[in-house]
Recover the amino acids of this structure.
């Protein structure tokens, strides 16, 4: 029954023209594969260079040099009745003079060179300790505080000892003091948790990302709370209920355009509307979140519509066929099946929002703020704007901290995208 | 080729379930159904046959107003179910679809458990007063769908995990669960293998005792095997409608004869 073509065995292998064509096809395939591999390798190499350069500068910020001293809390300098004030700085200086008795009679300038090893935050750390427990007055306490930035750089070999004295920020005498302290085991280099638990500071050794992390958290929360319900609502209406006419076409084109609008434009809009007309507070994560929501919404609408479209029509028909009403079809069947796609789109939209800088600059979220925001209405920075501020700072200690902050941001982005991929794989179904 | 037994099937006159008069359907500018008038009897299998694109599925979808969901589709004419105009403004398509169930070409169970698939219709129409009631409805529907024995021990497993033929019978059970009077089937066996097809065909014959069945099919053998009445559609016209045996053995119209002998189609 079958139609057999009579062909002599071996004809496949001997026909020269056929073989030439085959060779040519094979060559094209090899070239295409090579190009693809090349593109991927190039992208991989670029990613590697980016991460490697960040890690090679950022790892210095993983530790922070600390100085441990025995401080005698002199009741003559610090008295219980006017506690928040007092000679905390003098008490700290006395602790160092005890280590170097020949400095006892030194002039004010020399003394300042010696106490320069303390971070500016040391006196506040001591004050907070004593305010919390006034019983410490008159006793000797062991205090571990960060050293100031130049000494941290020295410890991490970022300031080279062989550099001529005039060209480095610590002079030979200070290096000698520092080395003596190190010999006596008073210098340590623990993990720099302050990078995550401190708020911003003018002093690199005290600066941390807490304010930026909390600010970004509030902003993303506001962004999610606005863009998720509004985006899904808009997508459901457009995809399932809106009549297909000129109006809905115009809306669709505009939503796609909105997704492509440069983010700085949204910043200008927020500046004019949220700050100008509504009079909302400047630098607040609430406003930041509202601005980011404007940007995230088109992404969520587009991905939700795509997810709704991907639900096969047979499911709608099945539900309609047993007499479900239109909203029962959408909310009972189509939307639950589209949810994994919606979640993936939302997380990717939020990840974009997390990395967005330009609109936040315009609403003032690049202010210098030394405490973490307690509510979305307090002034704050966000992770990308904090990076922007640090990258702009002249202190050398901020170089490694900027890289470390970028790594923290990248870590969050990788985590969010990872969750999106996990959700997609977990709930993906084949029809 | 044709089953000779069909002409011997007893054909008794049943009451009219659906009566359609001068039905016209337009898809945008396309005139898909042209002036179709037909009476569909109760407790009878009526088959719609015809070449692809002849309008048989479109006409079937008029009977439970599934065409309403297509924006560009316009239905004119008069279709009555038990004497009531189903396109009347006061008729809610949701209620109509509970009375006129539908089974589709590709088995399309919900991606939920077998139990939930069947229970969904009764739930949204409020047919069950309590859980025990619902259990009973589900069991009865699955029995009518001739699938109860195969799934009774795994009602909580997803309906999508069943084989194609089982899925289609589950879909039939789902359609039956809302206590419909008419079952519309749009090429219900075209995605099934021969064994599953014969099971579904047996089931149709069984269902005929309680329901009016309307099936659209591409297979003339299937129409000959399961139906008592056959309607032949061609280019949007209802060319011929009559006893199945008569259509297949002694067609009155030249086009019908050409189609069943394989010259057009």
């Amino acid at each position: 029954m079958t139609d057999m073509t009579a062909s002599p065995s071996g004809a496949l292998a001997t026909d020269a023209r056929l073989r030439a064509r085959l060779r040519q096809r094979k060559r094209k395939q090899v070239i295409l594969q090579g190009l693809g591999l090349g593109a991927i390798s190039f992208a991989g190499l670029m990613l590697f260079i980016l991460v490697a350069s960040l890690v090679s500068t950022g790892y210095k910020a993983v530790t922070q040099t600390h100085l441990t001293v025995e401080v005698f809390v002199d009741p003559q300098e610090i008295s219980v009745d006017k506690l928040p004030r007092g000679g905390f700085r003098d008490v700290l200086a006395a602790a160092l003079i005890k280590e170097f008795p020949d400095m006892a009679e030194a002039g004010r300038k020399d003394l300042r060179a010696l106490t320069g090893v303390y971070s500016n935050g040391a006196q506040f750390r001591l004050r907070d300790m004593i305010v919390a427990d006034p019983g410490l007055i008159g006793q000797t306490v062991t205090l571990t505080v960060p050293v100031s930035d130049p000494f941290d750089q020295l410890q991490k070999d970022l300031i080279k000892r062989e550099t001529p004295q005039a060209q480095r920020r610590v002079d030979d005498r200070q290096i000698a003091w520092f080395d003596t302290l190190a010999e006596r085991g008073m210098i340590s280099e623990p993990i720099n948790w302050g990078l995550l638990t401190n708020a911003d500071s003018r002093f690199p050794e005290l600066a941390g990302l807490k304010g930026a992390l909390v600010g970004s958290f509030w902003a993303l929360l506001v962004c999610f709370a606005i863009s998720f319900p509004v985006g899904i609502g808009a997508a459901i209406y457009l995809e399932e209920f809106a009549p297909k006419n000129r109006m809905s076409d115009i809306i669709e084109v505009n939503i796609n355009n909105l997704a492509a609008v440069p983010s700085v434009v949204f910043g200008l809009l927020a500046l004019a509307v949220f700050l100008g007309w509504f009079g909302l507070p400047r630098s607040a994560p609430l406003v930041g979140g509202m601005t980011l929501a404007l940007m995230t919404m088109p992404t969520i609408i587009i991905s939700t519509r795509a997810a709704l479209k991907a639900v096969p029509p047979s499911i709608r028909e099945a539900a309609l066929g047993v007499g479900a009403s239109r909203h029962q079809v959408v909310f009972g069947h189509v939307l639950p099946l589209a949810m994994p796609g919606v979640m993936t789109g939302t997380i990717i939209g939020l990840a974009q929002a997390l990395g967005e800088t330009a609109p936040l600059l315009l609403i003032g979220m690049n202010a210098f703020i030394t405490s973490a925001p307690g509510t979305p209405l307090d002034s704050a920075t966000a992770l990308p704007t904090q990076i922007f501020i640090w990258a702009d700072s002249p202190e050398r200690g901020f170089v490694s901290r900027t890289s470390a902050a970028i790594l923290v941001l990248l870590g969050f982005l990788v985590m969010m995208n990872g969750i999106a991929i996990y959700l997609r794989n977990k709930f993906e179904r084949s029809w | 080729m044709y089953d000779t037994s069909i002409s011997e099937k007893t054909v008794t006159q049943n009451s009219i379930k659906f009566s359609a008069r001068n039905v016209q359907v337009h898809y945008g500018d396309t005139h898909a159904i042209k002036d179709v008038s037909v009476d569909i009897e109760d407790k009878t299998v009526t088959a719609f046959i015809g070449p692809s694109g002849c309008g048989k599925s479109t006409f079937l979808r008029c009977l439970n107003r599934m065409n309403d969901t297509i924006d560009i589709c316009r239905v004119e004419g008069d279709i009555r179910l038990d004497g009531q105009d189903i396109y009347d403004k006061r008729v809610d398509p949701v209620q109509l679809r509970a009375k006129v169930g539908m089974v589709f070409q590709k088995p399309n169970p919900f991606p939920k458990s077998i139990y939930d698939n069947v229970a969904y219709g009764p739930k949204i129409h409020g047919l069950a007063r309590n859980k025990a009631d619902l259990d009973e409805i589900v069991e009865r529907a699955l029995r009518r769908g001739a699938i109860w024995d195969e799934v009774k021990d795994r009602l909580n497993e997803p309906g999508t995990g069943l084989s194609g033929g089982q899925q289609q019978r589950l879909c039939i059970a789902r359609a039956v669960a809302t206590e419909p009077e008419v079952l519309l089937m749009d090429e219900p066996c075209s995605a099934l293998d021969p064994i599953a097809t014969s099971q579904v065909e047996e089931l149709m014959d069984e269902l005929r005792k309680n329901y009016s069945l309307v099936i659209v099919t591409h297979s003339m053998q299937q129409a000959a095997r399961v139906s008592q009445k056959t309607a032949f559609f061609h280019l949007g016209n209802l060319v011929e409608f009559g006893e199945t045996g008569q259509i297949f053995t002694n067609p009155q119209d030249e086009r019908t004869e050409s189609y069943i002998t394989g010259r057009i189609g």
About this structure: Confidence is low (pLDDT under 50) at residues 1-9 of chain B. The two ends of chain B are 18 Å apart (CA to CA).
